[in-house]
């Protein structure tokens, strides 16, 4: 096979991957919106406040346009800058201070960034505070993060949020 053909082939694969990743990004935003809507509806139904974990305006696409709302209160390590009620802090600390069965919880693409032992503690707190009324959006499906998973010393972003 000619070198030029190999270059063309690699170029085609890269362009295809980037385009497909963009489509997956739009699909993620669709899931953010629809899952948030379900969480909000449930919170109004059961008359419990909606706690949003993860700023709607963080992340690459979120900084351009948010695809979900702030709920009644929003928590993120960097705060939720466009939300009326924002808590800037670690999600585990915030959850620990909330009573049992007190909130509906919506979380979007935050748990992937937390190391495993702590994630387990957060999951227990989410279960306690939401009593199962928990709505989540995962980064997967994604091609690029799955490829990065094979890069040594690169933290995985594709594990299921609660595993
Ligand atoms: C990729 S961004 C996702 C942003 C947004 N939730 C979304 O779905 O587009 C990951 C977010 O997780 C937040 N985060 C990471 N660890 C956290 C922790 N321990 N407690 C609260 N927020 C955390 C980061 O500050 C960042 O805003």
Describe the structure.
The chain has one domain. It is built from five helices and five strands. Helix 2 links the parallel strand 1 and strand 2. The protein starts with a helix and ends in a 15-residue tail after the last helix. The structure holds S-adenosylmethionine (SAM). S-adenosylmethionine binds next to loops.
List its traits:
163 residues, alpha/beta, five-stranded parallel beta sheet, binds S-adenosylmethionine
User: How many individual β-strands?
Assistant: 5
Q: Describe the global form.
A: elongated
Kindly report how far apart the N and C termini lie: 44 Å
* Spatial extent as radius of gyration: 18 Å
> What is the oligomer described by this structure?
single chain
Sheet with the most strands, sense and barrel status: 5 strands, parallel
What's the tally of helices?
5
Bound molecules: S-adenosylmethionine
Helical fraction: 40-55%
Give the number of domains.
Answer: 1
Let me know the average pLDDT: 92
Low-confidence stretches: none
Strand content: 5-15%
Give the class from helix and strand content and strand pairing: alpha/beta
Biggest sheet: strands side by side, in what order?
3-2-1-4-5
- Reading the helices and strands in chain order gives HEHEEHEHEH
């Amino acid at each position: 096979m000619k070198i030029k053909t190999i270059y063309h082939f690699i170029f085609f694969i890269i362009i295809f991957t980037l385009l497909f990743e963009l489509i997956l990004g739009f699909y993620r935003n669709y899931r953010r919106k629809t899952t948030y809507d379900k969480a909000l509806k449930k919170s109004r139904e059961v008359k419990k406040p909606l706690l949003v974990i993860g700023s709607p305006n963080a992340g690459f696409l979120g900084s351009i346009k948010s695809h979900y709302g702030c709920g009644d209160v929003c928590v993120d390590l960097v705060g939720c800058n466009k939300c009326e009620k924002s808590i800037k802090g670690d999600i585990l600390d915030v959850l620990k201070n909330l009573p049992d069965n007190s909130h509906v919880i919506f979380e979007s693409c935050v748990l992937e960034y937390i190391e495993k032992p702590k994630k387990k503690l957060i999951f227990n707190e989410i279960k306690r505070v939401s009593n199962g009324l928990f709505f989540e959006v995962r980064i997967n499906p994604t091609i690029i993060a799955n490829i990065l998973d094979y890069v040594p010393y690169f933290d995985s972003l594709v594990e299921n949020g609660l595993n």
